[in-house]
Amino acid sequence: MARIVIPDDSPPQIKGTKALEKLEKWGEVELYNERASSEEEFIGRIKEARVVVNIRAYSKFTREVLGQCSPSLKLLSVLGTGVDNIDLSAAREHGILVTNTPGFAAPAVAEHALALMLAASRQITQLDKQVKNGGWPRGLVQQLFGKTLGIVGLGAIGGHLARLAKGIGMKVIAWTFHPSRERAEKFGVEFVSFDDLLKQADVISVNLRLSDKTTDLVGKRQFELMKSTAILVNTARGPIVNKQALIDALTYGKIAGAGLDAFHEEPILPDDPLLKLENVVLTPHSAGMTPETIERGARMAVDNVINFLKGSPTNMVK
Q1: Angle formed at CA 220 by CA 217 and CA 222, multiple of 5 degrees
Q2: What is the arithmetic mean of pLDDT over 122-140?
Q3: Minimal CB count within 10 Å: which of 84, 143, 167, 280?
Q4: What CATH number has the domain spanning 2-104+291-310?
Q5: Active site residues
């Protein structure tokens, strides 16, 4: 039977699922519920595995790591959509197939993005704190009905968010690398240029994969194009938005607020300036953490392993 290693199920996500029970019928499964303390320890866990199931993005499959695992490692099955923690060119060179689970968390992440939009526009966290401290503030907040949402990246998550936003009466515009009339009609959005989206949108939601093309996609120039009343939401990856430019925009009123579920350093560092800002709502990269999403993602990642072992791989990352 194939040796299958899950080196990074911390916090636990696949442990206790029906998907894990199914996987155990196809190989000798070794599960780690504690984060490796070093790269050497991480390599030691996966070095002799034929299949690795990657749960957490903090596990970095660098050229060095993959080289140490060759030639035994043949499949890296990622529970998630993003593969920015993997050196894909090195994987190809070593003959390691990479698969992922596209769209598995779309409903949950889209709901979370909507929740961050509402929390930031309605100043929920600030008002909650003031009321609990004995206050009774009387100020104006933003409503989203009638406003424009600009979605940056119209994949499964962005498309689902478009439908939710239209459901509360928002106009939705979008920008993506590969726009098409079919996608515009499917999700009921209007494709515009990136600059036009930044200028028109009252809320901007980042829903892209992290790559060389998207790192620092939103920086100083992009914030200068936004409305001073705009809200930025990021449930994708922190480095898509330039950190210092974001802090400056929030500090000096270039935008009204932000809702963030993704950061440059995770967990966020205790001295991070974002923690001191009143106009930002923060969650711990938890947008996809629902029972339904966990079970579905685990099932897809396991099915990718089983299909590979059967000789018919699915959801391959190019």
Answers
A1: 55
A2: 97
A3: 167
A4: 3.40.50.720
A5: 237, 266, 285
